[in-house]
Amino acid sequence: MHPILGTIIQRLLLGLVTLFFVSLIIFSSVEFLPGDFTQAILGQAATEDTVAAFRAELGLDKPAYIRYFDWIGAVAQGDLGYSFSGRSASGVDRSRAVVDLVAPRLGNTLFLAGMAAIVSVPLALVLGITAALYRNSFYDRSVNAVTLTTISFPEFFLAYLLILFFASLWPVFPSLANVNAETELIDRIYKCILPALTLTLVIVAHMMRMTRAAIINLLASPYIEMSQLKGLSKAKVIMRHALPNAWAPIATVIAFNLAYLVVGVVVVEVVFVYPGIGQLMVDAVTTRDIPVVQACALIFATTYILLNLTADIIGIVTNPRLLHPR
Amino acid sequence: MSTKHGKKGDILLEMKDIRIDGFSDERWHKIIKGIDLTLHRGEVMGLIGESGAGKSTLGLASMGFTKPGCKITSGSVVFDGKDLVTASEDEKRSLWGTRIAYVAQSAAASFNPAHRLLNQTVEASLNQNLQSRDLAEADARDLYKQLQLPEPENIGDRYPHQVSGGQLQRMMTAMAMSPRPDLIIFDEPTTALDVTTQVEVLVAMRSIVEKFNTAALYITHDLAVVAQMADVIKVLRYGKEVEEADTRKMLKSPKEEYTKSLWSVRALEKAEAPSDDIILSINNVDAAYNGSLKVLHDVNIKIPRGRTVAVVGESGSGKSTTARVITGLLPPMVGNVEFNDGALPAELKDRTKDQLQRIQMIYQSADTAMNPRQTIAEIIGRPLEFYHGLSGLQKQERILELLKMIELDESFYDRFPSELSGGQKQRVCIARALAADPEIIICDEVTSALDQIVQEGILKLLLNLQKEYNITYLFITHDIAVVNAISDEIVVMYQGAVIEQGLKSEIMSPPHPEYTQLLLNSVPEMDPDWLTKLVKSR
User: Fold this and answer.
1) B250-266 residue pLDDT tens
2) Strands (E), B271-352
3) Which of A186, A257, B54, B300 has the least C-beta neighbours within 10 A?
């Protein structure tokens, strides 16, 4: 077996271990959330007996460690449980499976993240590489200044600016991204343009600057000087000699930003009224809907771990020392 | 006037009154202060001088290239009728890599780690569409063969980290030679290599340059090396020419004082003094890193008090590992270290302060061995506090005393390491070791990073200190000239084992074990015919 495969399997296992610890943290932090679902539903006037009966029905009366293992055991088998909401003290159970709540929302979030990523990653790479190629030129300075400006604004502000210009003053795109399961793909893309653009403006700067820095960092290497002295043009020096050695740091920062597109977009979702997973989680926290909160947190954690794992693996396979050992 | 290659050809490269400035510390400095240079077709010129003499800058300028932060302020560089100072980037690029090629000092750093060697070898030829890829690759394999690289058919498929340093250096010569340039700039190509490897590389480079009648600028600080390679030698100092002459003439009768001083350094030699009073002995030591990779095999070394034992061998022979075992940084798997008749605890943390104080160490790179944010007084004062509990006026007096011992004046007291030259920094490191009042100092390649004249100063200082305070040295080096200069006894190491130990006179006189013979044979001599004779004698 190639040693790289071993390393990758090892990383995957490490990722699972990380996920296990994260699940512990998620569970205990939800435990520490002030307030209680039963009291929130039943109100101040409820008797102790009714509260206790409702708690027993939801399984909240069991000790924490048992509930943890019940939960994680079910999750390991693909069962995220049932949402608390829809239940009431009257005994009528209209609750839905967490999967049914989360899945469409996650789909929406991934769609928006995908749109933003398809635009921003190539854009950031091209800007970063060209900025490194023409470093300290007017072009380099302008790209840096513009991207720095966009990253400096709070994202809701950028979102409102875009709405002001492209939905209000010059109404070419809708300001609401209220999609649902029936929305056609074309319509969906059209409605998501402004939120995707907002996200692009937020994440391009970071990736572009890292690409530029990773390349410039290598330009002082003797092998770059050597490639210049072999008579290669500037563009060839950068594309053929600098870039192949710069993938590891670039992949790391791209993974970081892609993870942000999934887990950190709640503000943008709110502004554009987009039904994504961020909003779902915030709602679930307000109503103390513990199974949904835990499911969302676990999905976020998995996203982070998977993307970072991918970046790690890219770092390994683009390093010839690891790919072709002596 | 004839050269090694027969008759001199036409003028290939002519530099006139070239001046180069470099930007550092917020201002422009003059690096090259007006140098003329004429090189004929097929001629090899050696550029020698100490670091800072401007030889690398001049070498690159002959291509019309300057490092970032440097600029050619005046003068001309005419290569085959074209002035490279005024030429456009495109014009220069069309010459670089094809008609003028460059061979850098560190082959390991100058090959791109991401590409296979063959692709890098033919890259310049293909870039200018000089020939088809198939032809270029076939030619590259042929060059590998001529440069005596192993498996010439397949070695190009490897990545740079998969071949050794000496092979990489020959690979870079092949890369330079691939488009059959008229001129090759060799910039200290063998400095980073072991002597035994250096010989192979020198032979390979010289024969191929001769074969294709390529002109070359050979930049080095090593006189004995340049004597083998060059037809003409130009001596540089402080960015100016000191003198230029034919190699034989230059070696026989250098005109300038400075050149003579360069020549005399290698003559330093200590008279050996035998002794049976053993201060430290390494007994049957096996050692390994990470518990698996065994690097020392049954090492036995005895070090007599007040003497210098030089440990010689190429990189990877276990010299520095031996030092780590003595200092306790790497506990041995088997065996022990006895010091003043008592066994030392294997691990550093088990040793008493007294034991620590008596064994001190000086490193190769004085730069990284000192905290750049501490003044010289703090650096030297630290062991005084730690081992002797000195403070206040007492400490200050002792620091000044130590500065005097290492021949630096009081003005260094408050300075920072960055304000000192390489030799001065190494002196401060010596003072820091002395501050502990050690009985034995382990010197790990302490002169390797220094110029020859500075080396001589450091070696003399170490000898004087030994005479005065009866200090014992374990001197790790790969440089036979340094061994001659400082040692009483010699230990030869190879692949983690001691080949032999004995008095200098014994080790240096025949008969030698096979490896010692190879090592001694590989040390370049000032005789310009040395390499030729060596090749013939094989």
Assistant:
1) 888 888 888 888 777 66
2) 278-289, 293-304, 308-312, 334-339, 342-343
3) A186
